[in-house]
Specification:
By secondary structure, the protein is an alpha/beta fold. The chain has helices spanning 13-25, 74-86, 109-112, 128-144, 162-176, 208-221, 255-263, 282-285, 316-330; strands spanning 3-8, 29-36, 44-47, 50-56, 67-70, 90-93, 122-124, 146-155, 195-196, 227-234, 241-249, 268-270, 291-298, 305-312. It is an enzyme of class 1 (oxidoreductase).
């Protein structure tokens, strides 16, 4: 018998990508149920030559499903993920709600696939920035033991949803035609501007996104004392996040050793051609499942430091693709 899979948040950016990935996966799927908010009920999405209807969530929606991928936000996951679990499905959740709960594995398959063995019906997908970063850090950590990470992010507007994409498009048009620009989704103008990530700043001085990156990397790596400092910034890019990373390792690595390690790492594509100025960019990363890493060089300010730059599609490796990888690893 084939797999019976549900997707919650099927009309959102991540849900749409998950449907495409499942269609490409060649998994033996006998049933795909799509769920979204009431305003999307009645719409249809194509899958393997069929037009599948969008249904509204209910307490009986998950009966008979083997897996459910949630991509509809924390409040929906909080309410309905336990119901899906009790219905017999394994939940793969893209929201932040379960990520730091001690009994819920937080999984990036290239890093800690073995943690799936301990799941109790719910598996958390990491924050998109943390997921992308972990793929590049882990292979280096295995060889040289990372002692400190400093990361600054350049995060695309699509990480804030469809309305944020529309806001950037609108502001660009208004700028060209000399019309007033009035921010609505973001606290400041995003067109031709950069600003601190729009999540609230907490008591420790870090905003919510920065705290997620630091806490989740520690959990994924089983490294609670990892020294990590994150600065998360919104930039006027439609899709794919980028990150500037500096690490300090216990064992010294030079740039060539680091490049060699990353070139053999799963989920990493080294894009590093200094002679031709060819390095990772959000445009190059958009639509790719791999994390692009380049600008690999020694940190001249530290005897065991390495610096590099990466770009990754946060809708794919940062969300939908990571979730589908988890599903595949469970089979």
């Amino acid at each position: 018998m084939g797999l019976k899979i549900g997707i919650v948040g099927a009309t959102g950016a991540v849900g749409v990508e998950a449907i495409k990935l499942l269609e490409e996966s060649k998994l033996p799927i006998s049933e795909l149920r799509l769920f979204a908010s009431s305003r999307s009920v009645g719409k249809k999405i194509g899958f393997l030559g069929e037009e599948l209807p969008i249904a509204e969530l209910s307490f009986h929606a998950f009966k008979g499903l083997d897996f459910v991928i949630f991509s509809a936000g924390s409040s929906v996951s909080q309410q309905f993920a336990p119901i899906a679990k009790e219905s017999g499905a394994i939940v793969i959740d893209n929201s932040s709600f379960f990520r730091l709960q001690p009994n819920v594995p937080l999984v990036v398959p290239e890093v800690n696939k073995e943690d799936l063995k301990s799941h109790k019906g719910i598996i958390a997908n990491p924050n998109c920035t943390a997921a992308i970063l972990s793929v590049a850090l882990w292979p280096i950590h295995l060889v040289a033991t990372i002692e400190r990470v400093i990361v600054s992010t350049y995060q695309a507007v699509s990480g804030a949803g469809a309305k944020a994409i529309l806001e950037l498009e609108t502001q660009l048009r208004h700028f060209v035609y000399g019309k007033p620009i009035v921010p609505e989704v973001f606290p400041e103008q995003i067109a031709f501007n950069v600003f601190s990530h729009n999540s609230p700043v907490t008591e420790n001085g870090y905003n919510g996104e920065e705290n997620k990156v630091m806490q989740e990397i520690r959990k994924i790596f089983h490294y609670p004392n990892l020294n990590i400092c994150a600065t998360c910034i919104r930039v006027p890019v439609f899709r794919a996040h980028s990150e500037s990373v500096v690490i300090e390792t216990a064992k010294k690595l030079d740039a060539q050793q680091t490049r060699s390690i990353l070139s053999k790492a799963p989920g990493v594509l080294v894009v590093d051609d200094p002679q031709n100025g060819y390095f990772p960019t959000p445009l190059k990363a958009s639509g790719k499942k791999e994390v692009l890493v380049g600008r690999i060089r020694e940190d001249l300010s530290h005897p065991r430091g390495i610096a590099f730059f990466l770009s990754g599609d946060q809708l794919l490796k940062g969300a939908a693709w990571n979730a589908v990888q988890i599903l595949q690893a469970l089979l």
